[in-house]
């Protein structure tokens, strides 16, 4: 398999390997497969990598700019990509499914009523549609452990609030545009909240600290 | 042990940062002014990554309950011990039981670091002592008034002073922010960015420095697909006002990015006062790397002037002999200071 990629610098100490600018299940699968490959190979061969992580369509690598530079890292990355192309990507590498029990509506899902009327469905139908798919964790970001989930049914997609709320409770499940996600911590936010889970998504004394790793799948269960 | 009497605007524990956890959405955090942080530990011969108290905006007061060496770095004004004795920044000193250290707001910067010899007695969270402001995972690292903090291995070290030109030369704002533009940013846009004069918005914090000016026009009305960002990333949101991402920023962002501020300029940006006008100026990747390495070499070669304390007892009276910064020798007896004359043969 050949990878169509671009290597971009972000300042002196960050490099991006980009597979194009889109939210695409196939591209994201390659990204996660390459991320696993890097996890196995990058640290063994270098002593200047500080951090690296996948996004929708890219891998970001932070390195110690006093020990190496962009051009050297770029060369190293090109070598690794060549090896990865030979090994081939493994789309079964992260088939882990995490079930998330959710209390929909009521005081836990304070926006469910409004969202249902906006999309022209009953609350029950919205819950049915939301609990049906297996959502892919495209990336983690925004805050520790926050999963960006892909695969929301377009019938229940809904624009985010114009003015964000000052505080959204921990565990809230929300919808914003074509995305759905879970807030691991209480925070200000503009997503429309349809339910809440009691599950702790981020715990500092666990390894890894996130319950939902990047690249895995999420299934919502109504309780 | 010390007790925080006044925690000031915003005080927290910080070390060099928390790495390897961006895949879980955890930003690096860590000290905002890496140079002043490093010196706070170098001055005391501490481990280079020992946690320090990062004090934003001054108005900080603490009381010591045991004898220990301390160091304060940051804006070049003096700090006060017991409301009278002056402590220079970028120097270390010995404090005793009951001594009170006060750090006032500064006119030439925003952030001070307080270190103690041997470090503070803390437990690491996810491998680091750095407070992460956007989440509640490190709440115990944010300092509150009346909080008491234990020391790990309190030690006495020879008081030393470092040449303060370093702050003036590399950290104090000169009104210029360098930027390494992204490869896709054209000259016309660069000119638009560089022709404006900005001031730092008062709502800036550990996540981002927000700038105010005439908005950058005809540009980026749409947000982009969220993608990775890094320390120093410059974003232009739809309102046209640039944001510089700092240590506690999100790991991904959805605003258009135009470039990254070089590593060596981050301390200076963190220290900029809200009322000082600043402009952007482009710098190449290789030039930025060269400057960064040069400054780092200068830190590695740093020379501290030693104030050597010698204590003598004459007829049961304690006499301290000290060499001052300008090489004169003084003796201190019962809190009176005498100049000592060298005998010339």
CATH class of the largest domain in chain A: Mainly Beta
Which fold does the CATH topology of the largest domain in chain A refer to? Cyclophilin
The number of helical elements of chain A comes to 4
Structural class of chain A: alpha+beta
- Structural class of chain B comes to alpha+beta
Quick structural overview:
The complex is a heterodimer of chains A (223) and B (345). Chain A has 223 residues and is an alpha+beta fold.
Walkthrough of the structure:
The complex is a heterodimer of chains A (223) and B (345). Chain A has two domains: 82 residues, Gyrase A, domain 2 (2-Layer Sandwich); 126 residues, Cyclophilin-like (Cyclophilin, Beta Barrel), CATH 2.40.100. The longest helix of chain A has 21 residues. A seven-stranded mixed β-sheet of chain A has the order 7-6-13-5-12-9-10. In chain A, strands 1-2-4-3 form a four-stranded antiparallel β-sheet, with helices on one face. In chain A, strands 8-11 form a two-stranded antiparallel ribbon. Chain A has four helices and 13 strands. In chain A, a hairpin with a 3-residue loop joins strand 3 and strand 4. Chain A is of the alpha+beta class and 223 residues long. In chain A, 43% of the residues are buried. Chain B is an alpha+beta fold. Chain B has three domains: 168 residues, no CATH class; 125 residues, Cyclophilin (Beta Barrel); 32 residues, no CATH class. In chain B, the strands form six sheets. In chain B, strands 14-15-18-17-20-13-21 form a seven-stranded mixed β-sheet. In chain B, strand 24 and strand 25 form a beta hairpin. The longest helix of chain B has 16 residues. Chain B is elongated. The chains are: A alpha+beta (223), B alpha+beta (345). At the A-B interface, strand 3 and strand 4 of A face strand 16, strand 20 and helix 5 of B.
């Amino acid at each position: 398999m050949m990878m169509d990629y671009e290597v971009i610098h972000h300042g002196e100490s960050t490099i991006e390997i980009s597979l194009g600018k889109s939210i695409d299940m196939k591209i994201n699968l390659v990204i996660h497969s390459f991320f696993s490959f890097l996890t196995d190979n990058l640290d063994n061969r270098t002593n200047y990598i500080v951090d690296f992580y996948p996004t929708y369509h890219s891998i970001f690598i932070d390195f110690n700019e006093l020990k190496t530079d962009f051009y050297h890292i770029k060369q190293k990355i090109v070598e690794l990509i060549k090896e990865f192309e030979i090994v081939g990507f493994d789309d079964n590498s992260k088939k882990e499914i995490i079930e998330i029990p959710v209390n929909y509506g009521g005081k836990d899902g304070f926006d469910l009523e409004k969202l249902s009327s906006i999309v022209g469905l009953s609350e029950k139908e919205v819950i049915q549609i939301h609990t049906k798919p297996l959502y892919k964790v495209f990336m983690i970001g925004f805050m520790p452990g926050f999963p960006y989930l892909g695969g929301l049914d377009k019938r229940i997609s809904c624009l985010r609030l114009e003015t964000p709320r000052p505080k959204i409770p921990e565990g809230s499940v929300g919808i914003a545009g074509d995305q759905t996600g879970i807030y691991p911590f209480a925070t200000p936010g503009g997503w429309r909240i349809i339910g809440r889970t009691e599950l702790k998504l981020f715990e500092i004394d666990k390894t890894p600290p996130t319950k939902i790793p990047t690249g895995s799948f999420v299934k919502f269960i109504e309780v | 042990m010390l007790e925080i009497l006044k925690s000031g605007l915003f005080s927290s524990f910080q070390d060099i940062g928390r790495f390897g956890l961006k895949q879980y959405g955890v930003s690096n955090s860590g000290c905002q002014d890496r140079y002043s942080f490093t010196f706070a530990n170098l001055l005391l011969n501490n481990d280079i990554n020992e946690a320090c108290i990062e004090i934003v905006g001054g108005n900080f007061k603490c009381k010591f309950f045991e004898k220990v060496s301390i160091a304060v770095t940051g804006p070049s004004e003096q700090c006060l011990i017991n409301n009278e004795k002056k402590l220079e920044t970028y120097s270390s000193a010995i404090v005793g039981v009951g001594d009170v250290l006060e750090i006032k707001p500064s006119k030439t910067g925003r952030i001070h670091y307080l270190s103690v010899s041997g470090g503070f007695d803390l437990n690491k969270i996810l491998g680091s002592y750095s407070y992460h402001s956007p989440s509640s995972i490190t709440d115990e690292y944010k300092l509150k008034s009346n909080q008491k903090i234990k020391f790990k291995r309190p030690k006495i070290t020879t008081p030393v002073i470092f040449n303060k030109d370093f702050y003036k030369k590399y950290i104090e704002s000169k009104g210029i922010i360098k930027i390494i533009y992204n490869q896709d940013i054209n000259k016309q846009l660069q000119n638009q960015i560089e022709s404006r004069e900005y001031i730092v918005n008062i709502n800036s914090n550990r996540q981002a420095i927000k700038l105010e000016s005439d908005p950058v026009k005809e540009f980026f009305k749409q947000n982009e697909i969220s993608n990775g960002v890094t320390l120093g990333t410059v974003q232009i949101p739809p309102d046209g006002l640039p944001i510089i991402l700092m240590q506690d920023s999100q790991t991904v962002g959805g605003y258009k990015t135009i470039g990254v501020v070089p590593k060596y300029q981050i301390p200076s940006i963190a220290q900029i006062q809200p009322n000082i006008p600043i402009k952007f100026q482009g710098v190449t990747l290789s030039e930025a790397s060269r400057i960064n390495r040069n400054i780092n070499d200068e830190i590695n070669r740093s020379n501290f002037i030693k104030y050597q304390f010698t204590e003598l007892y004459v007829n049961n009276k304690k006499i301290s002999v000290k060499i001052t910064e300008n090489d004169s020798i003084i003796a201190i007896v019962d809190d009176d200071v005498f100049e000592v004359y060298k005998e010339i043969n």
